[in-house]
Amino acid sequence: MLKSDSIVKIAPALVKAQKNMTAATKDSSNPYFKSKYADLSAVIDACMPALNAEGIFVSQVVTSRAKPDGSEIATLETLFVHESGEFVGSQTDIIMKPNGNAQDYGSAVSYARRYGLQALAGLKAADDDGNSASGKVVTSSPVKTETKVETTTQAATTKTEAPAASPTPATGAFKRKPKPAVVQQEDAY
Questions:
Q1: Neighbours of 25 (CB within 10 A)
Q2: Is residue 24 part of a domain?
Q3: How far apart are CA 2 and CA 8, in angstroms?
Q4: Out of 36, 49, 114, 175, which residue is the most buried by the measure of CB atoms under 10 Å away?
Q5: Whole-number Å distance between alpha carbons of 68 and 9
Q6: Residues 83-141: pLDDT tens digits?
Q7: Looking at residue 10, what DSSP letter applies?
Q8: Does residue 67 lie within any of the structural domains?
Q9: How many domains does the chain have?
Q10: Distinct helix (H) and strand (E) counts, the chain
Q11: What is the per-residue pLDDT across 32-58, written as a single tens digit (0 to 9) for each?
């Protein structure tokens, strides 16, 4: 966690701000998961007025940090800065698929901003739409699984059977046939 040497003034201001924060409205749709989520604007609307009322402004800046292997990774630094000069903050890695374009980068930054702000403000998080920014490929599991899918109107449980296995010509060993991958993308802004 990032923080100033003293947080004696910002800490009580954050407590007051959190008491006045609203829930982020889940007004954006993720068609792949058939779910709703709170986009960046909804997260900002839920916490910014309460933070500003207590003399706190929000800063979100793209920076970088060294990884253990010596390479760099882009990060988003989210800071809550109090009018006294005290601050608290956190860093969120900006993860995107390899060889991404500007829209992929924008989507990854937007995703990091939303989750960095949500986490630092302590807002409730129930989103499941971050597959594009992380480059995560969503596939069916090759083993028996039980998946619970909840939407705002219903909950359902489904079971998935493992696909048939077939021997490979060279070894005779059994190998599972992969199912086609589906990638979910989030709007850049």
A1: 15
A2: yes
A3: 15
A4: 114
A5: 35
A6: 999 999 999 999 988 888 999 999 899 999 999 999 999 987 554 445 444 455 444 33
A7: H
A8: yes
A9: 1
A10: 4, 10
A11: 555 655 678 888 989 999 999 999 999
- 56 within domain boundaries: yes
Burial 54-79 (b: 16+ CB within 10 A, else e): bebebebeeeeeeeeeeeeebbbbbb
| Structural domain boundaries enclosing 12 | 2-134
Furthest C-alpha separation in the chain: 71
Place of tokens 């993860």: 95
- 3-class state of residue 2 by DSSP: strand
- Could you give the CA distance from residue 80 to residue 129 in angstroms, rounded to a whole number? 26
For residue 94, tell me if it sits in a domain.
Answer: yes
Q: For the whole model, what pTM was predicted?
A: 0.62
With tokens 């990638």, the residue in question is: 183
Residues 6+ apart with CB under 8 A from 133: 94, 95, 96, 104, 107, 108, 110, 111, 112, 186
